[in-house]
Specification:
The protein is α+β, with helices and mostly antiparallel strands. The chain folds into three domains: 78 residues, no CATH class; 45 residues; 98 residues. 45% of the residues lie in helices and 10% in strands.
Length: 267
């Protein structure tokens, strides 16, 4: 939806709200009424429900009705419309432009991958959801043929050691320093292949967590890690099982981190 279409919809919505407010206060705003008559009428209006601008039943307080009457007397019908929202962008436009460029450069990149690249290159990045909304506004989630991104269903590896999933979770501060939990799960059995705390979120600590698991459990058929350290770790296109695996690993890491916060874990 373009910005002009959004503005037209907001204007139409504001006009509907103003019309509802005018219809509600029309009788009570009659200048021929005495103060006592107006007060009694306003109390009656506040005591019952009214059909709102969207068709729902709403109740309006006496103070609000009095405020609408004062606004109508001061500015007429236009004063009854809600003011337009003046939202100042809080995200640096240059960062959003860089994020869009990374997405256009490689359409298969997810918002999470773009976020990690921005953090590595700029030291800061908007949240994943902010990037997703930005890509949607720019229609970067649409393929050249006009179709949307693929919808992935549930997935589970068919046997043990077929696929491991790794992820890093921001954990609690330890000794005044931020800690990170690195964990690897077997996608079929949900068994924890490795788990290790570290003070830095990089490929070195990730490898330190993975190495003992390979020595003890053997080499799996594949390892999926939703993490990109661009100078060290090349990124590949998202697989049909990526998001399902990522969610399972993050849920486990979150539970593990909660135990650590309660005092049962450490570095």
């Amino acid at each position: 939806m373009s910005g002009a279409e959004e503005d037209r919809k907001r204007a139409a919505r504001a006009e509907q709200v103003a019309l509802f407010r005018y219809q509600l206060i029309r009788e009570a705003a009659d200048p021929a009424l005495s103060t006592r008559q107006r007060g009694r009428l306003v109390r009656e209006l506040a005591a019952r429900a009214h059909q709102g601008p969207s068709g729902e039943q709403v109740r309006v307080s006496r103070a609000t009705i009095d405020r609408w009457i004062r606004a109508w007397r001061a500015g007429g019908f236009a004063a009854l419309a809600p003011p337009a929202r003046q939202v100042t962008p809080r995200t640096d436009a240059q960062v959003l432009e860089l994020a869009a460029g990374l997405k256009r450069e490689k359409p298969g990149r997810t918002a999470a991958q773009v976020m990690r690249i921005l953090r590595a290159s700029c030291g800061w990045s908007p949240s994943v959801r902010t990037l997703q909304r930005h890509f949607e506004r720019l229609e970067l989630n649409t393929r050249p043929d006009g179709t949307g991104p693929a919808t992935f269903g549930r997935f589970e590896a068919s046997g043990p050691n077929e696929l491991w999933t790794g992820d890093a979770l921001h954990g609690p501060p330890v000794a005044g320093r931020k800690a990170y939990l690195f964990a690897f799960l077997d996608d079929h059995s949900r068994a924890v292949m490795a788990a290790r705390w570290g003070y830095f979120e990089d490929s070195v600590r990730l490898a330190a967590a993975l190495r003992p698991a390979l020595a003890a459990r053997g080499v799996p058929g594949a390892i999926y890690v939703d993490y990109a350290d661009p100078p060290v770790m090349p990124m590949s296109a998202e697989r049909p099982w990526s998001r399902a695996c990522q969610g399972r690993c993050r849920r486990h890491s979150y539970r593990f981190s909660r135990k650590a916060r309660s005092g049962s874990g450490g570095l």
